[in-house]
Structure formats: C-alpha cells, structure tokens
Amino acid sequence: SFVAVEGGAMKTAKARAAESTHSLPADIPLPTIAPLPEGRSFNVLVTGVGGTGIVTVGALLGMAAHIDGTAVSVVDQLGFAQKGGSVVTHITKSRETSPKMVIWDSRWIPSSLAC
Fold first, then answer.
1. Whether the Cβ atoms of residue 93 and residue 70 lie closer than 8 Å to each other
2. Can you give the pLDDT at residue 57?
3. Distances from the Cα of 53 to the Cαs of 15, 31, 48, 83, in angstroms?
4. Other Cβ atoms within 10 Å of 85 Cβ, number
5. Parallel, antiparallel, or unpaired: how do β-strands 112-114 and 71-77 relate?
6. Tens digits of per-residue pLDDT, 62-102?
7. pTM for this one?
C-alpha cells in the first residue's frame, strides 16, 4: 500500500494554519445524552474484514468513552485477519469501574456495526 505523488508540493505551515481555523456555527445545540442505568452496561459489536478499520473503530469508541469518564472494555478478535480475514471487536461501556467483559451471543447484541 505505497503511494507516489508526482507533481505535488507540500503545503506551507501558514497554509495549513489557515485551513484549520474553521469552526462550527454557534447555534448548533449539544446533544443530550442519557446516563447509563445503574448496574447495566451498553455493548457494541463491530465486525468486518481485515483492513477496513474495525480495530480503529473500537479504539476510537473506547477512547471516547474513556474521555467521557465512563468505564470501557474493548476486546479485539483478530485471528488471521490480515487484509481480508474476519475481525470482531467487542466494546462494553459501563458505570462500573471495571466492566465485566464477555463475548456475546450474536442473537442478543443490542448494537452492532458492520464494516
């Protein structure tokens, strides 16, 4: 996965800084997020094939929960998933300090994301 660019030029620091000054409009309201019920967890299953970002999605959702101050557990099942094999990531978000991680039965997964 190597890319060669012909005839291109690097942007200057000034040009990069000018592009990064975009901001969101002030009138966009923040979403209201309901807290997790006491003693309950929220589970997400992300599944797909190797090379499509399954592990990255799990890492992003896990870090977002961590930044939010919520306990989270992320378990990746990679196997022989180098570019084309199956990949599964189990994410558990909980109010507990260390969520109990289980591998769920696919019949009762509350939220799934297929990539």
1. yes
2. 92
3. 30, 26, 8, 10
4. 12
5. unpaired
6. 999 888 888 888 888 876 656 677 888 888 888 776 656 55
7. 0.61
Local confidence band at 5 (pLDDT 50, 70, 90 cut-offs): confident
Single-letter code of the amino acid located at 28: I
d(CA 73, CA 71): 7
What does the radius of gyration of the chain's CA atoms come to, in whole angstroms?
19
pLDDT of amino acid 30? 80
Structure tokens at 61: 């959702």
d(CA 81, CA 109): 22
SS3 57: helix
Q: Which helix (H) or strand (E) holds 67?
A: helix 54-67
